[in-house]
Design a protein that fits this description.
By secondary structure, this protein is mainly alpha-helical. It folds into 2 domains: 208 residues, Flagellar motor switch protein FliG, alpha-alpha superhelical domain (Annexin V, domain 1); 82 residues, Flagellar motor switch protein FliG, alpha-alpha superhelical domain (Annexin V, domain 1, Orthogonal Bundle). A two-stranded antiparallel ribbon has the order 1-2. It is elongated and about 85 Å long. GO terms for molecular function: cytoskeletal motor activity.
């Protein structure tokens, strides 16, 4: 397994001084472009012909992790910035992103075609990066800390930044420290890690897809008429008890608004436009309607009651539309962290 192989490599690295890789001209040029960054590197690469671009791109895609001392040897004029910045990482995705800044897509595809191989590294890491961050974090928790560091060094920084906090403070600190100190991982060991990821990737992706589908179904069922939902719910509970429980935990309906504290509910009521609130309450149960009214100050409560009494008959379709609008607005406020939506696993008791 990749973990065992990387453990052996890590022990060997600690037992002896690591040997520096012998770098050729294209590898040194690739380091230069990585140090310059995407914008300046792109401007400079535009001055090269296609053959030179292909050589540098090939070198960059195979560069892997280059530690700071070796970067310093190659780039003496950047000594100070490199020493402060630490290691740099060259990968297929980095090379591709740089090229696409200034070359047409078809030309980039031609340049990268011979480099990528039968199972493209960019596909592997791109697919891995698209997996839900919780799934990635749970996967890495079962790996050796050095393996986790090697993997997170090959994904985009924004992905790694979302995954690391989910691993727990202690493990996160260990992984970050390994990433900072990481020496170049031997290519054969990196291949083992990639092969393991290819094997595990589909299972992780399937788990992520399942969780995403639960969220999708929760949002879909939220839109159902209450009577229709009550009709199909018992059947789903009987046939798919575990999955349907997970979906219900992700659902948030109009009736769930009474679980909000008074200030949060008042904030929702103040923010909905026009006659959305009175129409929504006309179709609500007495329990829900009474809670809404209790939250309001006396004058506002009397005005809302008068408006509901004087508005005449209301279509059920209009009631459902108004209630969904209030639910959607409550979710928007929660996403903006103005209010907090209740969850089924929260304790009911206050301490």
């Amino acid at each position: 397994m990749a973990t065992a192989a990387l453990k052996r490599a890590n022990t060997e690295m600690q037992d002896r001084t690591p040997r520096r890789r012998k770098l050729g001209g294209p590898e040194k040029a690739a380091i230069l472009f990585l140090c310059l960054g995407e914008k300046r590197g792109s401007e400079l690469m535009q001055q090269l012909d296609e053959e030179e671009i292909q050589k540098i791109t090939r070198a960059m895609s195979r560069l892997g992790v280059i530690d700071s001392p070796q970067v310093e040897l190659v780039m003496t004029e950047f000594t100070e910035s490199v020493m402060n910045g630490g290691a740099i990482v060259g990968s297929f995705s980095v090379a591709e992103k740089l090229l696409r800044n200034f070359l047409p897509g078809e030309q980039v595809d031609v340049i990268l075609k011979d480099i990528s191989g039968p199972l493209k590294e960019r596909d592997l890491w791109a697919r891995f990066s698209q997996i839900n961050e919780t799934v990635i974090a749970n996967y890495l928790k079962g790996e050796h800390v050095q393996t986790a560091a090697a993997i997170l060094s090959n994904v985009m920084p924004d992905v790694a930044a979302r995954v690391l906090p989910l691993m727990g403070v202690e493990q996160m600190q260990d992984v970050i420290e390994r990433m900072i100190r990481m020496e170049a991982v031997p290519s054969e060991l990196m291949k083992e890690i990639e092969e393991t990821l290819r094997t595990d990737l589909m299972g992780a992706a399937a788990e992520s897809s399942g969780r995403d589908m639960q969220q999708h179904m929760a949002e879909l069922l939220n839109k159902f008429d209450r009577d229709l939902f009550d009709q199909i719910a018992p059947v789903l509970e009987e046939r798919l008890p575990e999955a349907f429980t997970g979906i219900k935990q992700k659902m948030f309906t109009f009736d769930d608004l009474i679980k909000l504290d008074g200030m949060s509910l008042a904030r929702v009521m103040r923010g909905v436009p026009g006659n959305t609130l009175p129409v929504a309450l006309r179709g609500a149960s007495k329990e829900v309607r009474d809670y809404f009214l209790e939250v309001l100050p006396g004058r506002s409560r009397d005005m809302l009651t008068d408006e509901m009494n004087n508005m005449g008959p209301v279509r059920g379709r209009d009631v459902r539309t108004a209630q969904l609008a209030m639910v959607d607005y409550a979710k928007e406020l929660a996403e903006e962290e103005v209010i907090t939506l209740p969850s089924d696993d929260e304790e009911d008791d206050f301490i």
